Amino acid sequence: MIEEYYSMNPCYEYLSTDTIAEWQSIIDLVTRLSNARVGLIMRVISDKIEVFVASNKEGNPYKINEKECLHGSGLYCERVIKTQSKLLVSNALKSDEWNHNPDLKHNLVAYLGFPIRNPDGSLFGTICLLDDKENQFSDDLIELMSKMRNMIEGHLRLERLRKQNAEQINIIHENNIQLDHANHELMKSEERYRLITENISDVIWVLNLNKKHFTYISPSIEQLRGYTVEEAMAEKMEEALTPSSVQFVMEKLSAHVPLFIKDPKMVQSLRGEVQQPCKNGEIIWVEVTLQLKYNTCQEIEIIGVSRNIEKRKKTEKEVLYLSTHDYLTGCYNRAFFEKRAEEELERSTRYHKPISFLMLDLDFFKKINDTYGHIAGDGVLKKFAETINAILRSSDIFARFGGEEFIVLIPETTIDGAVNVAEKICSAIENTVQPMNEKITVSIGVVERNADESLDDLYRRVDQQLYQAKASGRNRVVADKA
């Protein structure tokens, strides 16, 4: 029965004027973005439903404080309150169930509404849009309305906390409780306030494309970029983005604005990733969803939602690094080396350029692990990779092949040049001071690619040269100069 959801709605008794003004901004914004005729925030009082906030748009027939008996009224909002769930009616004239709906007296045939709950779970009322024409209400608008409902419920929680704080302070004063206890209670409330506000993190904004300035930015901009609403509103679009992101956005708009002008209904929302400067000088990654709309002056507006994706981008970067690099030494892994090697072999064939391979193996590495342990062995491998990286060019491709074996591809280099690089490596490794004062040496096989030789052919041939270097006493370079 609907009676069980009736309440005197104690929450509205302590709503501040600032909160009500913020709700007015919310309902005006969603009404303007949706191009609907009416936007309302309704509240339930006993057995009636009352207009609490009404959009200021011309043509709204409902006035603040107007009431309607709720039980059996036939109103769309009655259905939302009964089911405690979202209601979307595209055209009430297509269904007999709405024949007695008083909203139809104003020809309001389309409806989108969400229930608003008090902090204790009881129903405060509804937030809704009504239109005098058939309206399917887009997924983006439905998502926006849901977020606005969540923001309003957050305001109700904040107002309740403020009231509880005031009551607690009165109790403290009445009972002559020490001031430090009052401070403790206030700190706990501030922590709850912080947790609520941090959950409202997406930034909603509106940019007038004709006038090139922002007309609305939600308060969460300060959490995202460190700027106050006033500071962010004063920025030009070019100042709110990095140069590369400005170019990206302008290219998107150049492609889609003409399509929007031609047929506003055909252009879907745009989504992309951009970088934005913060007040502290940092640059952050942000996912933006854009939609073009005409305002009441027939000027084009960009409606945007911005979300911080810095953590996601950092994770993607780390995953990409781990997919191409050896986790211990920081050089490339074998899979990535083979991908790059195939590309270099193809380039070598196309442009008739020489290309050489080095295969390296640390001498008596097992002895290091057996004597000093695997942690010491890992340290040797890291130092080994650092020493070689200091000798190689940026164009050379250096990878860990497996265990203590490494491989180097040296583009545009003949066998003589490759031998010279290998001998530098041999000397540098022998003269590198190791933590355990053990002398570390390396054996190296060197080959230059013959015409049309495959990667597997090169592996076999360079492995043979490495075998010869180790069989000949180690700590040396053996090259196939045939």
UniProtKB/TrEMBL annotation:
<dbReference type="InterPro" id="IPR043128">
    <property type="entry name" value="Rev_trsase/Diguanyl_cyclase"/>
</dbReference>
<dbReference type="InterPro" id="IPR035965">
    <property type="entry name" value="PAS-like_dom_sf"/>
</dbReference>
<dbReference type="InterPro" id="IPR000014">
    <property type="entry name" value="PAS"/>
</dbReference>
<dbReference type="InterPro" id="IPR013655">
    <property type="entry name" value="PAS_fold_3"/>
</dbReference>
<dbReference type="InterPro" id="IPR050469">
    <property type="entry name" value="Diguanylate_Cyclase"/>
</dbReference>
<protein>
    <submittedName>
        <fullName>PAS domain S-box-containing protein/diguanylate cyclase (GGDEF) domain-containing protein</fullName>
    </submittedName>
</protein>
<dbReference type="InterPro" id="IPR029787">
    <property type="entry name" value="Nucleotide_cyclase"/>
</dbReference>
<dbReference type="Pfam" id="PF08447">
    <property type="entry name" value="PAS_3"/>
</dbReference>
<dbReference type="InterPro" id="IPR029016">
    <property type="entry name" value="GAF-like_dom_sf"/>
</dbReference>
<dbReference type="InterPro" id="IPR000160">
    <property type="entry name" value="GGDEF_dom"/>
</dbReference>
<dbReference type="Pfam" id="PF00990">
    <property type="entry name" value="GGDEF"/>
</dbReference>
<dbReference type="GO" id="GO:0052621">
    <property type="term" value="F:diguanylate cyclase activity"/>
</dbReference>
<feature type="domain" description="GGDEF">
    <location>
        <begin position="353"/>
        <end position="482"/>
    </location>
</feature>
<feature type="domain" description="PAS">
    <location>
        <begin position="189"/>
        <end position="253"/>
    </location>
</feature>
<dbReference type="Pfam" id="PF13185">
    <property type="entry name" value="GAF_2"/>
</dbReference>
<dbReference type="InterPro" id="IPR003018">
    <property type="entry name" value="GAF"/>
</dbReference>
